[in-house]
Amino acid sequence: MKLKQDARALKTKAISSMRAAMVAFNSPADDGRPTEILLRLQHAFEMLLKAALVQGNVRVFDTALGRSLGFEAVVKQAQQLAGLKVNDDEAGTLRAIDALRDEEQHWFAEVSEGLLYLHARAAVTLFDDLLHRAFSERLADHLPLRVLPISVQPPQDFLTLIDSEYEQIAALLKPGRRARSAARAKMRALLAMESHVDPDARVSQSDVNRVEQGILDGKARDQVFPALGSVGADVNGVGLEVQVRIVKNGGMPFTYTTDDDVAAIREVNLQKRYGIPRQELAERVSLTPPRSAALRAHLGLDDGEPYLHTFVFGSQKHHRYSGEAVARMRSGVKEYDMDAIWQAHGASRASMPRPACTQPDCACRK
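^ that's the sequence the OP posted. Answer follows.
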């Protein structure tokens, strides 16, 4: 395969980082080892995915910012690229590695050796799969013959590892242990695991607080981390031939709830989904704020989710809109006569939240 210059450079960096991650994993030195492994793994995948996208003529730069796309945007692009087609399970593995790396880089988490091995070995398997799909090469082609397996320890069942970690956290939180910081570091690692099933999963202090309270209340693991019940590890082969793929296996059904009794169930990151203020919404659809308000009133976007969420901080309320609201507004601008909408939903009325316009004789429909 004849590679484009940028794709060749990115692929070289990807393989270099993967080799460095393998060296770090097998290092006898423990100081900074998990951090080095996770940083290298995340970088290896970002470079490899960008190499595949560049080779496939997919733009990897944000034209507005003039900067290359971030990891999450690259994963989404890779899921659409013909010939690569990263599936949901693979995207979950990528996001989990990125979430663990994020905690290591910007705060700290404590990842058990079992979970670290499982994700490192899954990373090697996935990297080899993607390298072969995108460039018809194998990772083994880029490793010297002297390289040993990434670990002689057999991979353990994913839920067995999660349950073991959960029991250790509960033990660390017992009165008199003085190990709350270590327990919370382990909680952050388990919360990062939810990226396997939730693309919007993010680890926040409120998440950690909810998990801690749930454990102190004596909740079972499947109550505190219900999403992790649907994750498993598909292990094939032994020794040098071992392959690990982390997959969603159905598991126990679960639902999200706002019931205070289930305090530890993590919530969708609403601030990420609903992050567009009214002024920015108007700018995105090239309307003045009053006309934007009139169109919102006509479309009923101020009725609530999935278009609007109101964040309450003390006595203050902040209205934020989603990407769905932007898409709906853009369609509305093309579909309706904005002058008619302005006449029907004047400035004084458009500034107030109103239900969607359903009147068949409304001026905006003429």
